[in-house]
Amino acid sequence: MKMLEKFDFNAGFFAACALLIFLVGATITTAYPAFTEDSWSKPNDGLHQYSESQLNGREVYKREGCWYCHTQQIRTLEPDTKRYGWRGVDAPISVPSEYVNDYPHFLGTRRIGPDLARVGGKYDKSWHRAHFMNPRDLVPGSIMPPFPWLIADDNGRDFDDLVNYLQTLGRSRDWRPAHDYEQ
Amino acid sequence: MSSTTADRLKEFPSARWFIISAAMFFVITTFVGLLVATKFVWPEFMGTAKWLTFGRMRPMHVNGVIFGWLLAADMGVIFYLVPKLCGTGLWSEKLGLFTVVLFDTIILCAIFTTSLGITQGLEYAELPFVLDVGVTLAWVLFGLNVFMTIAKRKHKKIYVSLWYTMGAIIWTAIVYITGNFAVMFFTGVNQANLNWFYVHNAVGLIFTPLGIAIAYYFIPKAANAPLYSHKLSMIGFWSISFVYVWTGAHHMIHGPISQWLQTVSIIFSALLIIPVWTVVVNFFGTVSGRWDQVRRDPVLKYLMAGTTFYLLTCFQGPMQALRSVNAITSKTDWVVGHAHMALFGGFSFFVIAGTLYAVPLMVRRPLYSVKLGNHAFWFMLTGGLIYFFSLWTGGFIQGLQWNDASIPFVNTVISMQPYWVARLVAGTLIFTGAVVYLYNLSRTFWGPDTEEAPATETASVVQRG
Q1: Among candidates A150, A183, A182, A130, which has minimal Cα distance to A56?
Q2: Sign of CA dihedral B132, B137, B138, B140
Q3: What residue ranges do the domains of chain B occupy?
Q4: What gap in Å lies between CA B203 and CA B66, rounded to an integer?
Q5: Domain residues for A118?
Q6: Cα distance from B234 to chain A (closest Cα, Å)?
Q7: Is A179 within a domain?
Q8: Fewer CB within a 10 Å sphere, N or C end of chain A?
Q9: Do residue A23 and residue A110 come from a single domain?
Q10: CA–CA separation, B464 and A9 (whole Å)
Q11: Number of structural domains, chain A?
């Protein structure tokens, strides 16, 4: 109990103990997995490097805050694999190796709109064009904002790049047996 | 007996400027939140101007309320209570004022960067690198001022509020650097893990200990009663400093992250019941037998409501972390309701109480209007309760709907509409409360002189050595 009394009077000793006890959990949950979990930093076989256009597409995705409303993770839950499947094929569950080239990561935390981890190849470019002009034309009841400037500014470069990026999502898993991916 | 305005505005300049600027950001960034809430009900609201879209106004609201309002207000109240507990002045008021100017400049810049879409793309860490460096500097200067004040203290015994303040300063330094600088060196899941370590501990090891430091000081003061138990405050402090930091990964339960880390985060989320319940028992125990005072006093109202919301938040937290519950609530508006209860219902209420008690003492006159203080409280409480309950209910229902893959996604969005309308009403009430609060504070600072007796402090019921 001597030690507990010391905390009442010795600020330096107190601060040192508060730091040390915090560092135990901090190290084990951050630094330790970064060095031991190989799958977190090793890309899977089909994972490609983003092209320049796709990287700019990620910049647009980041700038417009797409990631606030759309997650990119098929969780280990059956409803996720069913809901985000396509034409009768279940979506494969997301694994860490899929994200190795993602900087920043877009795993997300809130699904105001649907998950996008497997959206690559589901819709063609003309669909995306109409959808970005006014989402409610295609999906009545949607609350997604329109993004006309992506198409209007700079000959639609941002729109082209963004769609190029979106079409990569999930493709490294090559999950559709019929390979019926839209362009 | 009345002193001139110039006379009165001499003491605690750093604390005063932090508090009044924070209260202004509270009104502004709550209004941004209100605009965002409107977009859920009318998606075409405010047209298609780039800088008024959801993706840019959301980070403006979030960064504005957590840094511009809550953290700044916390720092202001800490600049008041640390010198009080140490029996000495703040180590350097000049440095304190510089910290205020630096920090508020960063927040003003952040309003522009977020609206321009300049972002690092990470939750709570959107601000660009330069501003991150500024925040770090401001935090170091704040910490230096606090630690130097403690070093030259006259009262030898360190009261529990000082523990939490020192803990918050040390932990935050590491948490903030991890979340804003270390993340730059990682990609993918590694980066996500550091990101969630930061986000979770921003709440748990910045706002929680600062809020609790404030409540530990002002609850005995406002109730005019000694602290219920020193032993409980020890258990509470040392358990939170060990337990909280392990829980970041509970934001990725069922996600693409190692199972052992998920399990660790769930176990430690459950253990959080220890630090939370000890603190809450200590707070309620202190006020026990004096509940009649709560009726009159807005300060005690905020403190007791804040304690209740803190208890509820930290009951929800462990529940949401359980794999079965998480499969329903995760990624829904339930979580948004939860986050608002913690940061608005809990820690904002604590710091508002602190300002309502301390500002009249700083300027040596009574609060402009106790009645307005109570009105603001009822606006915020009613708004808060409607906000929390509508989003919990709506979010839980949406989570259940998601788990039935035969329901199209957009149908689950449409079924949220009544809850989003309720949230808009709630936001309007909260905003109204914030405006009344700011008006009351600024009249206390700068209103015309009155003949009323200046505010007095209750006897030193906060234990000192």
Answers
A1: A150
A2: positive
A3: 1-157
A4: 9
A5: 52-173
A6: 8
A7: no
A8: N
A9: no
A10: 11
A11: 2
Residue of chain A whose alpha carbon sits nearest to that of B237? A18
CA angle B302, B307, B311 (to 5 degrees): 145
Contacts of A5 (CB under 8 A, 6+ apart): none
SS3 A89: strand
> What chain A residue is nearest to B113 in terms of C-alpha separation?
A63
DSSP per position, A119-155: -TTTS-HHHHHHHHH-HHHHSTT--PPP-HHHHHGGG
pLDDT for res B462: 66
CATH of the domain at A144: 1.10.760.10
Residues A84 and A156 in one domain: yes
Evaluate whether residue A47 is within a structural domain. Answer: no
Whether residues B335 and A109 touch (CB distance < 8 A) is answered with yes
- Does a structural domain hold residue A16? yes
Here the tokens at position A161 are 């790049």
Cis upstream peptide for A104 (omega within 30°): yes
- For residue range B15-44, what is the model confidence (pLDDT) as tens digits? 999 999 999 999 999 999 999 999 999 998
Which token pair is B288? 């026990």
CB B24, CB B442: distance < 8 Å: no
Please report where in the chains the tokens 């409480």 appear, as a residue.
Answer: B381
State the pLDDT at residue B5.
Answer: 61
Q: How much is the average pLDDT of B203-218? A: 96
Predicted confidence (pLDDT) per residue in A94-128, tens digit:
999 999 999 999 999 999 999 999 999 999 999 99
Residue B3: phi and psi, rounded to 5, are -100, 160
Of B376, B380, B396, the C-alpha closest to B346 is B380
Inform me whether the pLDDT recorded for B464 exceeds 50.
no
The reply to whether A91 and A149 lie within a common domain is yes
Rounded Cα gap, residues B277 and B236, in angstroms: 8
Choose, out of A58, A76, A139, the residue to mutate when testing the contact with B (most B CBs < 10 Å). A76
Residue A68 resides in a domain? yes
* Distance separating alpha carbons of residues A66 and A61, to the nearest angstrom: 5
**Cβ contacts of A31 on chain B, cutoff 8 Å:** none
Task: Please state at what angle helix B93-115 crosses helix B13-41, rounded to 10 degrees.
Answer: 20
Closest listed residue to residue A61, CA positions, set A150, A174, A154: A150
Amino acid at B153: R
- Reduced to 3 states (helix: H, G, I; strand: E, B; else coil), residue B453 is coil
| Contacting residues of A for B197, CB less than 8 Å apart | 26, 29-30
pLDDT, mean of residues B178-202:
95
CB-CB under 8 Å, B187 with A41 = yes
Can you tell me the distance from the alpha carbon of B388 to that of B284, in angstroms, rounded to the nearest whole number?
A: 23
Same structural domain, A26 and A65: no
- Here the tokens at position A81 are 């694999």
